[in-house]
Every structure is written in structure tokens, then in C-alpha cells.
Amino acid sequence: MKKDAWRKAGALFAAVLFAAALTGCGGGGEGGAGDRTPVTLNEVAHSIFYAPMYVAIEEGYFDQAGIDLTLVTGFGADKTMTAVLTGEADIGFMGSESTIYTYAGGTQDYVVNFAQLTQRAGNFLVSREPIDHFSWDMLEGKEVLGGRAGGMPEMVFEYILAKNGMDPAVDLSIDQSIDFGSTAAAFSGGQGDFTVEFEPHATLLEQKGDGYVVASLGEDSGYVPYTSFSAKKSYLEEHPAVIQAFTDALQKGMDYVQTHTPEEIAQVISPQFEETDLETLTTIIQRYYDQDTWKEDLVFTQDAFDLLQNILDDSGVLEERVPYEDLVNTEFAEKAAE
How far is CA 225 from CA 156, 169, 216, 265, in A? Predict the structure, then answer.
């Protein structure tokens, strides 16, 4: 090669390195080194329950993986799924039961789960009065503010009731008429004897003296594949490098929560929850931490998927089983865990 050609090549290489330094990115995005790939993630709710994801955001793991992430809150699995199906979002984060519903409904470009985040239910049963030794049969004849029919919060609640010998349709009254996120306010206003609440609502009800946490649905249900990340089958096929980079960043968030204290986790994710003071944030994370909420890896196993379908069966919302091989791809999570 002539000397001037070498000089031009060297200058070009230096320019590429300089651009990479400015962006602070690795080569994980499809655009190559120095480019970040835009990815829109629609989350079902903005909750402390999903702490590893927010750690990955705040610690810059997505940036380092070459992803320019836009986070949108869907406020309901139906809205999150719609955003993914219409292409408004590239990736959805919601209960994986939604992917089963769309597949069973005949959607051709169906939505596939590629990373499981939580392995416990994230909600709590709140009573109007403190109960030292709660048992589920105490709900007999009571009114409970529950969740949307067919949604994971409600189905896991009914699953626990059935495990404890209670018929959800006969032994108690479950009010499913209140919108997601509004049950705590309704409970404070006098509706219901008990309410099923996510954080921070459960802790805030306690702080106001309007209720008392008497049971953890996460502890009493056992390990359940509660939430996962998913994308359309076509997106996974067309953008495998993006999905791998995204999953790699998430795995770093999972690693962080496994190796740091609730206080440290709270400090990192506090910018995501500016309305919640650090002490309350730490208390909530401690609850999730103690019940082993977050997996060590993101692999969505067949046993977990089978359990999910058992819960759907018990709730009467699943007409026939759907194949694990179609709706779960573990390739990206397994590679991220290496």
C-alpha cells in the first residue's frame, strides 16, 4: 500500500476510535462500534419490583452494550402487548401470559419470551387491621380488591387461594372493577376488607396507617415466572445482535442485585423513583430481596413455563396448551449468563 493510502487509513481508524470514545459504547449494537441502536422498551408498569432493569439503566449497561434505550410505561399488559404488536415498541416487558393469549388467538407474527426477570409474585395482601398470624382462610366471607381477570396478579392470588382449600368464586368476594393502580386509593377510601397491592402502594398504605401488610403473594405462591421480556418473532429473527446486547445489559443488572445490598440498590435506582424517599425505597427493596424475587440469570425454563400454564388452566383462561419451543427462546439469556 502507498504511504498516503496508509496515512488515510490511519486517519480513518483514529476517527472511528474517537467517535467510539465520545459515545462511550461498545460494539453491541447492530450499527457497529461507535453507534448506538435505538430500542423502545414498553414496560407494563413502573415498579420497584423490576429493580434489576433500572440498575441496568442507571449504571449505563445499555449504553455500554450499544443500545440507545427509550423506556415507556404501558400501564397494563394489554397496552404493552398492543405496542409490541403494532411496532410502537421493539420489546415488551410484561407477564408472559400475554404472549400465550396472542399466540392462542392466532397471531401470525407472535411474541416470543427471551428473558425472565422475576421469579416471585411482587404483590402483597393488605388488611385494614394488623394480623399477627395470618392464614388465607381468614379471607372467607370478606371483600378483597383484586386485579384484572386473566392478569398474573389476579391469577396468582386465585392460585394461592386454591392451594389453601378456598374457592375464589364462592368463599369470598373479589372486586375486579377497579383500574390497575387505583385499588390503594379505593382501599383508603373505605372499599374492601383487604386489598392486593404492589409496591410502593403496600408500604405507603402502612405509612399512612390505612392498612397493614399481612402476607406476601410471592412467598405463598412459590416460584412463578411472573414477568419477562419479549419481542415479535420477526424482530428476534431480524435483530439478534440487538436482542443479545439488550440481554447482556440486563444480565449485568441481575448480577448487581445479587451482589449488592438493598441500600446500595436503592441508591442506584433512586433517580427512577424521585417521588419515593430513600428510606422507603430501601424498605421496599428489602422486602423483595428477602423473598428471593429476582433470578440469578434470565433463562426462562420449561418447568417455569409449564407452571405458568398450570396457573392459567386453574383460572379457566387457557383452552389448550401452547408449545414452549414456540414461545420461549433461551439462546440469548444462556449466552448472557456465560
Answer: 11, 24, 16, 22
